[in-house]
Amino acid sequence: VQLVESGGGLVQPGGSLRLSCAASGITFTLYELGWYRQAPGKQRELVTTITSGDITNYADSVKGRFTISRNNAKNTVYLQMNSLEPEDTAVYYCVGKRFTTNYRFDYWGQGTQVTVSS
């Protein structure tokens, strides 16, 4: 199983980025997917999730600015990030789990760095 993130980088405050996560080795359509982030010196935070039925949830800190989506034909999940703030600077990890009732995610990507700075 592999989850491979891409799309991170350096962006100015107020800018946008789109992260992608390509999955392999799983029956993608059956999985709940999401994004965690971890900033230096801070606890890991669950940013957003999307179920196999396209139900989404967001952390309060990103509601209205971030959008998660999935393309089942491409086995890919996306995170569109708009109105980025310096506080969004973190390593972003793509995650997946088979059963929504499970608290923990089964699989993690290697992470991609997002830096918001002028």
Characterise the protein shown here.
Strands 2, 4, 5, 6, 9, 10 and 11 form a seven-stranded mixed β-sheet that branches. The chain has a four-stranded antiparallel β-sheet with strand order 1-3-8-7, with no helix packed on it. Strand 5 and strand 6 (56-58) form a beta hairpin. The protein has no helices and eleven strands. The model has no long low-confidence stretch (mean pLDDT 97). By secondary structure, the protein is mostly beta strands. The protein has strands at residues 2-6, 9-11, 17-24, 32-38, 45-50, 56-58, 66-71, 76-81, 90-97, 107-108, 112-116. The protein is globular.
- State the order of secondary-structure elements, H for helix, E for strand: EEEEEEEEEEE
First CA to last CA: what distance?
37 Å
Beta-strand fraction estimate: over 45%
Query: What is the number of strand segments?
Result: 11
Computed structural class: mainly beta
- What is the average per-residue confidence, as pLDDT, rounded to a whole number? 97
Unreliable runs: none
User: Level of helix content?
Assistant: under 10%
Radius of gyration: 13 Å
How can the largest sheet be summarized?
7 strands, mixed
- Described by the principal axes of the CA atoms, the overall outline is globular
* Total helical elements: 0
Describe the SSE topology:
Elements: E1 2-6, E2 9-11, E3 17-24, E4 32-38, E5 45-50, E6 56-58, E7 66-71, E8 76-81, E9 90-97, E10 107-108, E11 112-116
Parallel strand pairs: 2-11
Antiparallel strand pairs: 1-3, 3-8, 4-5, 4-9, 5-6, 7-8, 9-10, 9-11
In short:
The chain is mainly β and 118 residues long. The chain has no helices and eleven strands.
